[in-house]
Design a protein that fits this description.
The protein is mainly α. It has 3 helices and no strands. The chain is rod-shaped and about 160 Å long.
């Protein structure tokens, strides 16, 4: 194997140096160096500005997410209340149907309705009041003293 002596090796030249660049490329090179210098100078200021912008964006995103969550919650509560109303309406219809059928069956058996019983209770109260009035002692009619005949 061939070994090379490090002392005999030629040093590698950089392929791009400011002297070998064309004028526009040289300007781009200098602009890059200037940007790097500025970034080092204003690094902390730029970082603070980016943090501030990031916080503002985060707050805005959270507010929008909160608003959309609230809208979705409202829509779901409206749907739930509509569903509840429909279910209540159906239960009411079923209840009335059941009550009507039970009332018809009781009527066929000759059972009095609530209205019939209430009417009888009212009539009974009237009759009891009349009986009580008849049984109470009436004050005796006062006789007028006999007037002297002249």
């Amino acid at each position: 194997m061939a070994t090379t002596d490090p002392k005999k090796r030629k040093p590698a030249k950089p392929t791009t140096t400011p002297e070998t660049l064309t004028p526009p490329a040289h300007q781009v090179w200098l602009a890059g160096l200037g940007a790097m210098a500025k970034a080092q100078e204003q690094g902390s200021k730029a970082m603070e500005a980016l943090i501030h912008d990031g916080l503002a964006f985060q707050r805005k995103s959270q507010a929008e997410a909160q608003q959309r969550l609230q809208e979705a919650t409202e829509r779901l509560s409206h749907l739930a209340s509509d569903f509840g109303q429909q279910a209540t309406g159906r239960v009411d219809k079923l209840e009335h149907l059941f009550e009507d059928r039970v009332a018809k069956a009781l009527h066929r058996l000759g059972m009095p309705s609530m209205l019939d019983i209430q009417t009888l209770n009212d009539r009974l109260a009237q009759l009891e009041a009349q009986v009580a009035a008849l049984q109470s002692p009436r004050p005796a009619a006062r006789k007028k003293p006999a007037s002297p005949k002249a």
